[in-house]
Amino acid sequence: MSVPHNTQVKQDSDEIELGKLLGILLDSRWMIIAVTISFAIVGITYALLATPIYKSDALIQVEQKSSGMPALGEMGELFASESSATTEIEIIKSRMILGKTVDKLNLTTVVEPNYLPIIGKGLTRLQGDIPQLEITRFEVPDNKLNKAYSLKVLSSIEGTFELFDNNENQVLTGEVGKLAQNGDVKIYVSYLNASEEERFSVEKRSRLDAIQWIQKNLSVIERGKQTGILQLSFVGEQRKYIEDILDDISVNYFLQNVARNSAEAENSLQFLREHLPGIKSQLTFSEDALNKFRQENESIDLGLEAKSTLDVMVTIEAQLNELTFKESEISQRFTKEHPAYIALLDKRKTLLNERERLNRQIQKLPKTQREVLRMTRDVEVNQQIYVQLLNKVQELNILKASTVGNVRILDKAQSYSKPLKPNKIFLLAIFTMIGTMVGVGIAILRGYFNRGVENPDEIEAIGLPVYASVPMSDWQIELEKKQKSKKQLTVQDTLLAVSNPADLSIEALRSLRTSLHFAMMEAKNNILMISGPSPGIGKSFVSANMAAVVAKSGQKVLVIDADMRKGRMEKQMAINPKPGLSDYLSGQTAIESLIKKPGLEGMDFIGRGDVPPNPSELLMHPRFKQLMDWGSKNYDLVIVDTPPILAVTDPAIVGTHAGTTLLVGRFSQNTVKEIEVTKQRFEQNGIEVKGFILNAVVRKASNHYGGNYGYYNYSYTDEK
Fold this sequence. Notes:
Blueprint: H1 5-27, H2 29-49, E1 54-62, H3 74-78, H4 85-92, H5 95-105, E2 109-113, H6 120-127, E3 132-139, E4 148-155, E5 160-164, E6 170-175, E7 179-182, E8 185-193, E9 199-204, H7 207-217, E10 218-222, E11 229-236, H8 239-296, H9 304-330, H10 339-362, H11 367-402, E12 407-415, H12 424-449, H13 456-460, E13 466-471, H14 474-485, H15 491-494, H16 496-499, H17 504-519, E14 527-531, H18 539-552, E15 557-561, H19 569-573, H20 581-585, E16 603-606, H21 615-619, H22 622-634, E17 637-641, H23 650-655, E18 660-666, H24 672-684, E19 691-697, H25 701-706
Parallel strand pairs: 13-19, 14-17, 14-18, 15-16, 15-17, 18-19
Antiparallel strand pairs: 1-11, 1-12, 2-9, 3-8, 4-5, 4-9, 5-6, 7-8, 10-11
């Protein structure tokens, strides 16, 4: 089964695009390596200068049930509590716990030495001489909270200092170990170790801000599932400092837990103590009333039936009283719709019904016995209640004294010896990876946005044949460097065709000479105009060296610098450009005085002359046609170097006298659109562009993988 043609083309196109992408990366490999190394250096520098962050942790066990005293039975179960890990974590991170730590360790005062921006803190740490300042007490007005003050050391020996506000106004002066005060501002410096003129930033933040700072750096998690083991972690710059903070948080949480458990017993004790005096008064009143009645009515003994009823009545009253206590306790934990609360109410209703039945039975007894029975019942019930309350008070006192809480500190806070961050190896790897990605990204973007021509096929696609691809010459680059240092120059120092005839660029121009020979056979004259779309593309280089190559073949060549605006071809010819073309066109000199001999047999040169105010008008003068006709008759080839057509109209004027027109474009600089517009500009003026010369071609991997052809060195080498 054959593959469709369009599918094959698409696959080839994809392969070329991928190949070109690989080529772009290979071409930019040194840039990518440089960017990667730069980022790696930045990563190493950051890792060295970044302030180490240490981690301290502690372990706390939260037991499922508070210890209490099992011997107390229901009383012990009353104070048993179960709490989930999530609840305990939130308690630990609450303002109630953390606020005590803030107050004890004075965390509302923030002190930091003044360092150089960005790198100062890291450099000071690496030098090992970190200034130290400890402030035990610092008070400012509320409107000055969260505003930085500046403390300046006056004398490190005497321990004197000055305090400035954020506007650099002096607030007060003080001495270490003494309270300094000025109005509402008070400061007590307990320790100072810094050189004179050293400055510290001192800030008083609000208590809430300090608590939020702790919450931000504090982490509490449960180790394992349903273990009740809480791990507290705190991060900071100073190991001892974060250990103190974490230890204080652990102790505060432990103490509040104990206080919370004992508080329940204390509340019950307070309730019982409030009721004891009233019960005792009722008991005394009942006993007095019974004794008085007996004295008034002489001694009366109750019958067996009455005594039995009395015992039952006392038992019922005791149970009702017990239910009253239980209801006061259970109402704090449950609503009346809870099954336990409903059961308690049902039991009370049953006891009340039984008491009502007994009361009706008592009404059948004689009046005297009924009164004695009632009073005796009141005495015994009140006595039983009073004894019961006294017993509960003793039990609660024992329970309160034995409360130890259901929290235990397993491990005190301890900091790790190695800092938590920065992780130097990780940072180096990250920065190196980012550097590589940035380098690759720059290379791809640069390749994407670079629309300059790099492949002759792109030019031929617009209908313009490429006559030659002239490689970039390293030798020419060295020649240009030497020209800057030399004062006396010859064509040996300026023309590549003379200095290094075997250069690949010159070989390409020889190939152009051969192609040009056949191209000019049908031309109207032997005048060759060389132009291009923009300046700085090497038109003068091609014109001068092309003339030298033709001259070396035995032909007589005339080179004319027709760029009377910015022409600099006299540098390549190593001669004085005056008088030149502009002088002749303005009628100041004759043709014979224009001709200069660069020093290469068969090659003559006419410079641009003085810069005229009207180059285009001078080129339209009949003298220019006379010069062209004279050159065509007296030379085998006339090469006219012109300015860029997209900048000025001069090439369009010169082109009407030339039999052949070639365009020069620079590799990776001129776009296809520029070249196409240049071609159209000439055609609009009736000038046919014969071909194109791609100059300064660089061997690039993107061209190789993209399907472009290269060039090869085939010169003779002397092997000895």
